[in-house]
Amino acid sequence: MAEKDSLAAKLDEDLNNYVDKMLEKNKNYKYAHPLSEDNWEEELENIPLFMTKCPEEVDPEKAPGVAAMQAMKFEEDDPDARALSYKDDGNEEFKKENYKKAIKVYTEGIKVNCSDTVVMSTLFANRANAHYKIGNYRTSLNDATEAKNIQPGYIKAIFRGGCACIELERYNDAINWCKEGLAHDPDQKCFQDLLKKATLKLKQYERDKRKKEAEENKMRKANDRLIEAIMSRGVSLRSIPGQVNNEEDREDNSEVDKLTALGLNNQHIPGKGQVTLDDDGVLHWPVLFVYPEYGQTDFIEAFNENLRFSDNLQVMFSSQDVPWDVDRKYRPSQLEIYFEDVEKNALVFVTQSTCLANVLSNPRYVVYGGTPSFIILVKDTPFQEQFKTKYNLDR
Amino acid sequence: MAANPPENELTDLFGYLSLDSREDVKSLALEYLLGLTGSVDGIKFIENNLKLVEKVIELTSEKSQGVQKDACVFLLNASASQIVARKLENLNTFELILPQIVDKDCIFADKAAMLLSNLTRSEQGCELCLKSVEKTPQYSLKKIFDVLCNEKYNEHVELHHLATFLSNMSRLKVVRMLVLDKVGDLMQKLSPYVGFQKSVVRRKGIVGIIRNCCFEYDCHDWLLGDNVDILPTLLLSLAGPEEFSESENDKLPMDLQYLGDDKERETDHEIRMMLIECLMMLCSTKSGRQYIQEKNAYVIIRELHKWEKDENVCKAIENLVQILIGDEPEDNMANLHEVEIPDEIKAQFEQCDEKNLE
């Protein structure tokens, strides 16, 4: 009995020693993936044995167990069966509208490169559908083409290809896809409908193209007429220095230059401060009056070239008081009109009874940036005297 | 020019032409006969010896394609004569010629098509041809229409004259009903050729077929509807380079909107006439008339009238414009083609027309 007790005590001691030894040996060991106390419930969800529902997205970092089990599923030796399995999984994801996921799975299936053409073409066609669903029409078309090449006459792929072509605005191609579909199966309503849609879209597209061309043509003609009218009057045009004419794609074309000088290039919006030609062949210029004494300006949107300066000044200065004209000096009869001859740095006098057209035809007059401008001074004032001294003398 | 042979030599000629004589002999004999078809006297001679024609018909089933071709050309030339054409209609010509049309490799299928169009100038010819076609299901009319719609069917020849032949045939109701078959899509395949720039013969034939089909008033709604949409096709050939306002453009069928200033009209006045006739007939039902009015066909026709030089076409246009912008007739006369015109008024109209022509 005592022997038995001593043996038991020895065994206990041995065990304790062993445990102590193991503890000592593994003092620094830590469990690789311990459940943390804070979110152990969540972590259990990542372990296949404990999970309560099927995972949506599998991250091999977070849930290695699930990823490993998933990989096992595709470790079939037979490539055909493996590809088929990917196809089924992809279809599941597609049904759940997880199109990006479906694309991934189909892609894995395609990578298997199995010999079963039906499975391969289905994988491509299904991936085409998934790409189409998320708006990758280009890729969708490529996949549909691939599917059709693997399995000629594959209705689903041809239909998807046609749809993708429509979205890509390649309507003639779409029509050809439809015709190909109808050649294989003339009674397919989907192709008849798609063909109708593509034909209508094509017609609309061509109509819009013709309309655009017609409009451009019209504008070009109007511009030609305008330039012709301006040139025939001998008006000199120049761009505002430093503002334009240094564009990279400047064409070597005097017409373009003239349009640029008129500020008409590209964006001709009639009546928006640009010179226009009316149906009677009369030009209407935007004109700037500058009053240097007060640093003020007046902008006349459309100055009929056949009107005199006095006509405009009458309207502007006789009917109402001008707020900045504190001394009430600016009476139509007291006003003098000048323009700058930039080359000679001269100030040229214009009588009030002159028509705009006559001034613009003057060889010394240059229209900058499409807007003729004039300087208005008041007769016999100190400012006028002083202002004129800044320029070279002109008769 | 070959002189007409005396009687005894003719008997020899028959000998040379029989199927079992040597090929080079047949060729020579045919060459001689072909020479005959170049002169009025030669044709007269053939008319008086129709047995010759019978002999040559046999040669169209000859083994050598060269002989076949010469035989076919001879028949084609000779068929310019009414008498010879009558004779040919009543022989088994159609049965021998139709297979050439559907033969992808036949080097003279175009001549065969011309011969067929010559032989179907009369309604009687059409009916006889139809009978032959019905006897041989492998050369069905549907098949011949398909050949016409497939430009690359026979790489050796252009089968534009097939359109003329089928246009002749479309005088028969059976043929029209085939073209107008809603399932067959034939009309949809034919209509793009209305603007076929490469051949006026084909255009004329196709427009002829469509014109004849317009006599089937029950089919007007279908012709004008979404499936066929014939109106833009007809109008496009009549439209010119004139510019329309935005509101005028918007009312037109989409194909007609904003045509460029390089748009050309149909150059052939007979085709223009037929196109106007098509529109005229399509206007005879109330729904058709309203549809064509809605689609702003008037502006196209108005510009055409300003441009048109041919007097007869001008008159036809004026009649059409009357319908397009005139008052709607009373309800009991809504379908113009059903309106009964009393004989005395008919006579008055005819008198007017005659006066106008003077």
Automatic annotation (TrEMBL), chain A:
Belongs to the TTC4 family. The keyword Repeat applies. It comes from the Eukaryota. One of its GO terms (cellular component) is cytosol. This is Tetratricopeptide repeat 4. One of its GO terms (molecular function) is Hsp70 protein binding. Keywords: Repeat, TPR repeat. It comes from Paramuricea clavata.
From TrEMBL, chain B:
Residues 100-272 form the Protein HGH1 N-terminal domain. InterPro entries: ARM-like, ARM-type_fold, Hgh1, Protein_HGH1_C, Protein_HGH1_N. Pfam families: DUF383, DUF384. It comes from the Eukaryota. This is Protein HGH1 homolog. Residues 278-331 form the Protein HGH1 C-terminal domain. Belongs to the HGH1 family. Signal peptide: none annotated. SUPFAM superfamilies: ARM repeat.
